[in-house]
Amino acid sequence: MMDCRKALVETDGDFEKAVDYLRKKGQKVAALRSDRETKEGVVIAKTTADNKAGVVVLLSCETDFVAKNEDFVKFAQSIADLALANNTQTVEELNAAPLDGATVADKVNDQVAKIGEKITLSRFERVDAASVTAYIHGNYRMGVLVGFSKPVSEETGKDIAMQIAAMSPIAIDADGIAPETIAREKEIAVEQIKAEGKPAEMAEKIAAGKINKFLKESTLLGQAFVKDGNKSVGDHLKSVDAELKVSSFKRVALG
User: Which pTM was predicted?
Assistant: First the structure.
């Protein structure tokens, strides 16, 4: 209330100018807090009504107290809804999109002025596919999107999304892992084996086995299925539908 009163005094009672004054103040507060860490926040994952597209939005703040505030969660949800409604593709587009008479970036600065914490739109991800499943884990602390090659049941979509949330794969399969990543893992494995006193030729063979294990543990389709460790995620998908594929996924978490 005192901020509003001061704004009106500074602008000679002009309501519109007072609003601009407060927004500028919000920008100033944001600048002053630019070096603060934002380890808390909320992650919102949503899909369009036809499940053809999905978005994940991470709105960061400084404290758990703010992250759990109902109005803060609703604000994050409104940004995700806007992204879906506008078919937004990038975080830059989202920041510039109009929301209740101002841009999203301006609205974020309004929250900074109102709450007094550093607040940022930290991440924005999007998935388009024949069918997209959205999953929010741990009271808005993690969001997952999974794109499938064809429509799936709610159970199948959630199972794969929860797998991604729990096991954090870095790619769908080995083809999705950069060659330099595999080369680095192999180099580390070879050096570890040599340090154990094994000969170089043996080190190469053992390292190959370690790389295979790395690929199984790091790729979605190679991982053991959380709900049935006797089969891989790839095998589980084949048991659901031999033609079903995961086309892409996104995993966004706090921290």
Answer: 0.81
